[in-house]
Amino acid sequence: MVLAVAQGADSKVESVTGQGGSSAKNLDKYVKEALGKSKKEHQESPKRSQDQEKGKQANRSGSSKKTPSQDLAEGRADNIVGGIAITVNNDPITLYQIETQEREQHVSRQQAINALILQRIQAQEIKRLKIDIEDDKIDAEIENIARHNGMDTQDFMRTLAGEGINPSAYRAQLKKQLETRELLRNILLFNVNTNSETKMREYYNAHKDEFSIPSEIITIRYMAKDTKTLTQALENRNVEIPGVTHNEEKIHVKSLNPQIAQMFLSTKENMFTPILNAGGGNYVSFFIKQKLGKENVSFNQARNFIAGKLIEDQQDKILAEYYEKLRVKAKIKFLRQ
């Protein structure tokens, strides 16, 4: 299984980083109140809206007689307009889209409506902030995902194709996820204060346990020439799999580059790291047997981590306030459901 863009509830393919899904869920709850309030406002005056529409239609009709071709053209237009269930700042959501969302995501109608309104609000903000993910960034993200799965880009794309995922559709979906991630980053970075030295030092002093890392890690290195054989070995540790070598190895954390070190530190004992491309046609994964020793990370080394934690701790409040402002400004009209 590879880490790719989610294709639906029944897909075997997982989310690109695990962040896209949680972000959508966080944003979704901030829109729900907007939906309820806007829907209530619409329901309180349906007759007035209907009367106004009838009046407009009467004015448009006049007393002139329509030709058969005019009747046919207007009938088609009525069918299109009649299919619009909701507008969000004049962006339409159709009954067909709502029903498709219900069916494909296996959710209730209200959940489908919430998700679609959220998509419109996000898309409008992405456009307003001029967020544009270029092809080279998409290529870099695909390469990163492939590497995380122990593959090169070509092998990764072939694996996607083998799972029935169209490469163009995959890139388009990945672009949307990256745009949403960038939107969230912009919202949080411009609405949270992480520059307070006092706040950061207070966090550091109150969470010293978070800034203590093992000095050494005892691992068992598993290596093979292909990911399929290696995966089989990882799933059957007590079985000797032909083509797979394994040996115990002691790793000094300080000797690793930060990205690899973080991978070892975040993998719990008695668990495997993700499969990595070791070069030379080899793939490797490490079984974390034991973490030894204890070293403290200095405040200066921990600054970026603390800034991220402060953003994380405040993000629910920030996003709630941000989307409440958007809700107040947005014109959400419920035409039919």
UniProtKB/TrEMBL annotation:
Keywords of this entry: Isomerase, Rotamase, Signal
Domain SurA N-terminal: 96-180
Region feature (Disordered): 1-76
Polar residues composition bias: residue spans: 14-25, 58-70
Record keyword Isomerase present: yes
Domain Cj1289-like C-terminal: 198-291
Basic and acidic residues composition bias: residue spans: 26-56
Species name: Helicobacter mehlei
Keyword Protein transport belongs to the record: no
Protein origin, superkingdom: Bacteria
Alphabetized InterPro entries for the sequence: Cj1289-like_C (IPR055131), OMP_Chaperone_SurA (IPR050280), PPIase_dom_sf (IPR046357), SurA_N (IPR015391), Trigger_fact/SurA_dom_sf (IPR027304)
GO molecular function annotations of the record: peptidyl-prolyl cis-trans isomerase activity
UniProt-recorded name of the protein: Peptidyl-prolyl cis-trans isomerase
